Amino acid sequence: MKAEILTIGDELLIGQTIDTNSAWIGAELSRLGFDVYRIVSVHDTRKDILEALSNTVGKSDLVLITGGLGPTSDDITKQTLCDFFNTHLVVNAEVLKMVETMMKRRNFPMNENNRRQAEIPESCRVLKNERGTAPGMWFENKGTIFVSMPGVPHEMKYIMTEHVLPELGHRFTSQAIIHRNIMTYGMPEARLAELLTGFEADLPPEIRIAYLPGSGIIKLRLTATGQEKKLLDKSIEEQVKKLYKMIPELIFSENEDSFEMVIGKLLKEKKQTICTAESCTGGRIAQLLTSISGSSAYYKGSVIAYDNKVKIEVLKVPGTKIEKYGAVSEEVVEEMAKGARELLKTDYSVATSGIAGPDGGTEDKPVGTIWIAVASVKGIVTEKHLFWYDRISNIDRFSTAALSLLRNQIIRR
What we know:
By secondary structure, the chain is α/β, with parallel strands linked by helices. The protein contains 16 helices and 17 strands.
């Protein structure tokens, strides 16, 4: 079955709002066996919406629409849908009652804009929205299902989960689609693709592979499509096992588990602790580690040693080493990791010192240079990397490289 997603809103096109709805909808439809072949975003204009809707006729089994259902004058989706489906707006008593109840519960007075939320195209089936005032609307026309929903993510997800997905599951006997995501780090995309040339050539016809890079991490997505889910599970598992044999040193997780998630699980299992000493990453590694629920069980704290005085006075880095080797050096980052571990009494510490840019680079140490150290009872290990991106991208790359080195030391015997 073919599906497409239509998002409505100028805020999406000018970059004020990131379209997370389409990603979530696409993942949910894929699980039901739909092939999402197109995502379209259009302006809040009658002409553009009608043109986008007309382009779906005869091409899709399902069209999911988000946005433009608010109570203000610039929300024109309902009236445009009336024009497209040759119907008109009527007041839906049930929706009106829900809106009145919700406004009363919030201690807000009802006004004409709120009442307008209860005006619904007569030919649609109303989908109750317990998370907001705008209901979802289900239309069927010439063999295609159209569902219009609010653009607010938690409202859209409620309508999808409570109404749309169950109905689609009942009405369509779909093929199975299974995804397995293998997370890798440590090799450029082109080199990894070259290494896996034989693997790709030997893939069975029901399985395809995609390379999805980001901040040095490459997600290998294996997708299996067919009618027999058990057979697909078996087939895709065989391919995953092959990958673990071919590139074991590159794989750090599955199913999009991040480095910080993997590290958190490892430290919890081992009942061990971690701290950070950051210069060029400015607390980014600490933020990543503490973004995981329950991280207080293993994360002790951080020293943001941006200034050399902090390195010397707090982390006890010898000033002579900074003078001799520079702050961005193996010798200094080792001392930072050592000092943080001793100060915060942890099993592991990770330290960074580098040049994120755009200023500060030299011929010997250009922008993008970073030294990373991890200290533990096993000793201190260091790595040097050279990236060549803008400041924000460099900080992300620095942090990912540091977490990779940390993970490798945690699992090292």
